[in-house]
UniProtKB/TrEMBL annotation:
Domain YCII-related: 13-81
InterPro entries: Dimeric_a/b-barrel (IPR011008), YCII (IPR005545)
Organism encoding this protein: Dielma fastidiosa
Lineage: Bacteria, Bacillati, Bacillota, Erysipelotrichia, Erysipelotrichales
Family designation: Belongs to the YciI family.
Descriptive protein name: Uncharacterized protein YciI
Length: 100
């Protein structure tokens, strides 16, 4: 398993609608329900989101986020970077099981 930092950079906030937000939440919830999200957070200035996900390949993460409603509707872009995890809190060991 590999780990990735996904930054969603808001490029066109004026295009965000309530229905698009609901579609985004429903779509990204599939990763959470699959246990592939360690955490997701908005930056306090609402300019971007930061999410740590796990997947087998970079291609799998790219494919998922390139089909995401905000991306498709030009609300934001995604920057995806593979992480080389070398330390984590002991209570997250179950999530990082393949990193040890």
């Amino acid at each position: 398993m590999k780990y990735f930092l996904v930054e969603g950079i808001v490029t066109h906030p004026e295009k965000m609608t309530d229905s698009l937000m609901q579609a985004h939440q429903a779509y990204t919830e599939t990763l959470m329900k699959a246990g592939q999200v360690l955490f997701s957070s908005l930056k306090s200035d609402m300019s971007a989101s930061v999410t740590v996900v796990k997947a087998e390949t970079l291609q799998a993460v790219q494919t998922f986020y390139h089909q995401e409603p905000f991306y498709i509707n030009d609300v934001l872009t995604y920057s995806i970077t593979e992480l080389a995890v070398h330390y984590h809190a002991s209570d997250t060991k179950h999530w990082f099981q393949a990193a040890d």
